Amino acid sequence: MLSRAALSRQAGLRRSSAIAQRFASTKSLRDTLKEAIPIKQEQLKKLKAEHGNTVVGDVKVDNIIGGMRGLKAMLWEASVLDPIEGIRFHGLSIPDCQKVLPAAPGGKEILPESMLWLLLTGQVPTAEQTRELSRELAEKGQLPKFVEDLVDSFPKTLHPMTQLGMGVAALNHDSSFQAAYEKGMKKPEYWTHTLEDCINLIAQLPALAARIYRNVYNPGTPLPGINKDLDLVGNYSNMLGYGANESLTEYLRLYIALHGDHEGGNASAHTAHLVNSTLSDPYLSYSAALFALAGPLHGLANQEVLRWQIAMQKELGTDITHEKIKEYLWKTLKSGQVVPGYGHGVLRNPDPRFIALQEFCDSRPELKSSPIIELVNKTFQVAPDVLKEHGKTKNPYPNVDATSGCVLYHYGLTEFKYYTVIFGVSRALGALTQLVWARALGLPLERPKSMSMDALEAFIKKP
Ligand SMILES: CC(=O)SCCNC(=O)CCNC(=O)[C@H](O)C(C)(C)COP(=O)(O)OP(=O)(O)OC[C@H]1O[C@@H](n2cnc3c(N)ncnc32)[C@H](O)[C@@H]1OP(=O)(O)O
Ligand SMILES: O=C([O-])CC(=O)C(=O)O
User: Fold this and answer.
1) What residue ranges carry the coiled-coil annotation (predicted)?
2) Which CATH number fits domain 301-410: 1.10.230.10, 1.10.10.10, 3.20.20.70, 3.40.190.10?
3) Which numbered ligand comes closest to the C-alpha of 344?
4) CB within 8 A of 133, min separation 6: which ones?
């Protein structure tokens, strides 16, 4: 019998060769998808025909009243979340992706375009294919004038996430899906129009998000145009005014690639999926998703983490010991608040995205010695034990939000209320990918059955 180590080595080798086989050819994104779709359609047909009645799990009353936690009830192609290991994108872990997905010329971090290609097709793109996608996105990145005017008319005091959601909804003015539907488009064509809308939206998000930043925090300053030779984040960073900061630009690439997808059940991705299942177009679907992301138990937690850590720093002064952090954590918990950035609906270990972002900090001397990053690290050393002792949360470990904002803060992007907008630029990669797959696979309107408490009790009493 093979030892555990040998079995794990074998599994590792099998995985590396599977990764190698998944290197895409020289085909375009659309041709790669055209090849992948019939294979998946066949897989779905077979699953339905051969296993349509196979039981996957029980539905307990706890599931119904507990936010459907633990219910396996959605089809989601691009990623799967393991409670211990964390996320895998088409089977690739974060370290796998960091090894195989192309980076920017001269950079090291994953280019979000290469993550998008992987999520959409299940294949690892070449550097050349990634560059082509970057160029396409840059060419399509300009906002229509009326959306610029709309965003410019918002009061500066309107939360940046509200502005983003409204801007994205307004972009549906030019939806290819909606226009084709009005002309009587047939079901097999749904995915192609969905894809065009999704690519256009991903392309336009940086200009929209940067405009919101400029209007709210630097009104009256000029906004640079889109440079066709830059990648998506290169342009975003440039438009935000941080283009000269290569470290921050690289961090944004990693951040946006890693936040792209987290399987289907998270509130933002699930919202996009639900809304799009009504054949609402991708812009409206993603706009709805952004308003789910804007909640403090979900994406907005990254804003809340910084606010909480800064308040802690202010209260505890310069000599911040583990003991003082412990007291501050108890004070937060006793006041009935959650510790932002800790806990998770599925994960039961430190989030590997948190680890990857911490490793980024460890790789740069200026970040290693940054007071805010030191504070996040020290909090990580104390918080899990405090949360275990508190005894409520099923997962006392940090999620990605526990650290994602601190690098932005260190490099001078200190406006916390903007942070979830960056998350919103990222989550489009995965949420929109699934819309393409849902339409290519002909998935139906999502409509679970709900029950009242009276109906549940009557069901329980039934002999
Ligand atoms: C990108 C992301 O969306 S990652 C998540 C970002 N959100 C946060 O960081 C906010 C803080 N964390 C939380 O509120 C939660 O852990 C969530 C929302 C992420 C997950 O919620 P759940 O799956 O319901 O967590 P769980 O089953 O562990 O909750 C059990 C109890 O522990 C509490 N709990 C969970 N996490 C925390 C926390 N970080 N601090 C204090 N209490 C917590 C819950 O509020 C709940 O209390 P209740 O029984 O009084 O209602
Ligand atoms: O998976 C979840 O429920 C929340 C999360 O971490 C994400 O959406 O990135």
Assistant:
1) none
2) 1.10.230.10
3) 1
4) 29, 113, 116, 117, 125
Give residue limits of the domains in the chain. 135-299+416-440, 301-410
For the question of an ipTM over 0.95, the answer is yes
Two domains, one topology: 135-299+416-440 and 301-410? no
Give the number of whichever ligand sits closest to the CA of residue 395: 1
CATH fold group of domain 135-299+416-440:
Citrate Synthase; domain 1 (1.10.580)
Model's pTM, two decimal places?
Answer: 0.95
Structure confidence by residue, pLDDT tens digits, 206-216: 999 999 999 99
Distance 336 CA to ligand 1 centre (A): 12
Q: Is 345 in the pocket of ligand 2 (CB under 6 A)?
A: yes
Instruction: Tell me which residues of the chain have a pLDDT lower than 50.
Output: 1-14, 16-17, 20
Check residue 24 and give its pLDDT: 58
